[in-house]
Amino acid sequence: MARRSEKNLVVGLDVGTSKVAALVGEVKADDTVDVVGIGTHPSRGLKKGVVVDIESTVQSIQRAVEEAELMAGCEIHSVHAGIAGSHIHSVDSHGITAIKEHEVVQADVERVIDAAKAVAIPADQKILHILPQEFIIDSQEGIREPIGMSGVRLEARVHMVIGAVSAAENIVKCIRRCGLEVDDLVVGQLCSSYSVLSDDEKELGVCVIDIGGGTTDLAVFTDGAIRHTKVIPIAGDQVTNDIATALRTPRQHAEEIKIRHACALSSKDVSEDIEVPSIGERPARQLSRQNLAQVVEARYEELLGLLQDELRRSGFEERVAGGVVLTGGSARTEGLLELAENVFHMPVRLGLPQYVTGLDDAIADPAYATGVGLLIYAQQHRFAAGPDYAESKGLWGRMREWFRGNF
Ligand SMILES: Nc1ncnc2c1ncn2[C@@H]1O[C@H](COP(=O)(O)OP(=O)(O)OP(=O)(O)O)[C@@H](O)[C@H]1O
Ligand SMILES: [Mg+2]
After folding, report:
1. How far is 246 from 129, CA to CA, in rounded Å?
2. Is residue 146 in a domain?
3. What is the pLDDT of residue 272?
4. How far is ligand 1, taken at its centre, from the CA of residue 157, in Å?
5. For range 125-131, the mean pLDDT
6. Residue 155 belongs to some domain of the structure
7. Ligand 1: lining residues by beta carbon, under 6 Å
8. How far is the CA of 21 from the centre of ligand 1 (A)?
9. In a domain, 132, yes or no
10. If you take atom 8 of ligand 1, which residue's CA is the nearest one?
11. Which one, of 326, 334, 329, 330, lies nearest residue 368 by Cα?
12. Where does the pLDDT of residue 387 fall: very low under 50, low under 70, confident under 90, or very high at 90 and above?
């Protein structure tokens, strides 16, 4: 097989609670990403987005990466990896600096971001992202690209995403054990926002919710910038557990029943019967799909209620005119979008990964929102990465050096 030029490849590694997905993308001359390889493997070493078994996680990563390498015909050396878990939280911060030459240059932007970054963080936590929301020059608010503008005083409003050092170190450790380098760790909902949200939605105000197996990740965007992030440790696995308990069936059957028959809206016409295997030697039973829907609806109602509380607490509920975008594997649950519309009282749509080319059928699945988003993120920040791109020592380059220094 012809080997691809590895210089133009970007790799996203989504180490999720349900599956590990490795995606290889080729960056084209026009800066679009063509997906050329995908490898997935069930994930067994994570609980609620956090590594709890290094050995199993390493094996899952290895399998997924090998599969992706084979499909893409390349060797993977480094990856952009996703990170999730309820240890992740966010704070807004603010920095001020003088504009040295009365015209903003890159160094001024870096200084003001450094100033905004200077907040007290407990020793067991680390800043994962510093995401500029807006710059202010001499009281002129709402500036997105300050370089080249004149003024005396530069201010920055930033959104900082913070996570537990140990959780980040364990993910990095697992990836390094597979002989791979980590270019960057990117939080799940930020990844999903790259692959499922349009610029118009981010401008108008939108809430993206990634419901996976172990965690539900939320992010709010308004005026083109990220405003709020939150991870809730309830997702599809909990629904499977509920089904296993309520229907008294082994967990693997509960998962199958969920994927084939679950509906999150018990008021829908779901009257047909389904066969439910029993535990031990007992014979299988026939149960109404309605009973199943009631179990599923109860859990999703609780989860959506928590998400709505979070959106309210963030103060952005009134400002997400673009509505809610649901993604992640569990977003495929029948009736979930309607249930979410009933809870949020705003339009809700399914977020399928977009903005890349290649392997369309394979990636047209909300479970790949994080993986595809990692590719887009990697493409947009690749000039900050690796010795080939040493010429760019911009903000991202410095942040990456800082990241490498920290792990
Ligand atoms: N068709 C479907 N209907 C309902 N649920 C589904 C369907 N397909 C997948 N799921 C559920 O989606 C979940 C997995 O989603 P996903 O692959 O996004 O999780 P993950 O990224 O591995 O986990 P996490 O993001 O929580 O760490 C599982 O709970 C699975 O049961
Ligand atoms: Mg996920």
Report:
1. 41
2. yes
3. 86
4. 35
5. 95
6. yes
7. 16-19, 43, 49, 84, 188, 212-215, 235-237, 240, 255, 258-259, 262, 328-330, 332-333, 367
8. 12
9. yes
10. 329
11. 329
12. very low
- CATH number assigned to the domain comprising residue 142: 3.30.1490.110
pLDDT in tens, 22-39: 999 999 999 999 999 999
Beta-bridge partner residues of 187? 83
Residue 195 Cα to ligand 1 middle (Å): 17
Distance between CA atoms of residues 154 and 42, nearest Å:
48
Domain that holds residue 150: 89-162
216: tokens are 């539900």
- Other Cβ atoms less than 10 A from the Cβ of 323: the count is 18
Atom in ligand 1 nearest the alpha carbon of residue 366 = 18
Counts for the chain of helices (H) and strands (E), in that order: 12, 18
Looking at the CA of residue 334, tell me the nearest atom of ligand 1.
3
Model-wide pTM > 0.85: yes
Angle between helices 251-261 and 289-314 (to 10 degrees): 80
Q: Which two tokens stand for residue 95?
A: 């920095």
pLDDT digits (tens, 9 = 90+) for 178-220: 999 999 999 999 999 999 999 999 999 999 999 999 999 999 9
**Cα(325)–Cα(347) distance, integer angstroms:** 9
Give percent of the chain above pLDDT 90.
85
CA of 191 to the centre of ligand 2 (A): 10
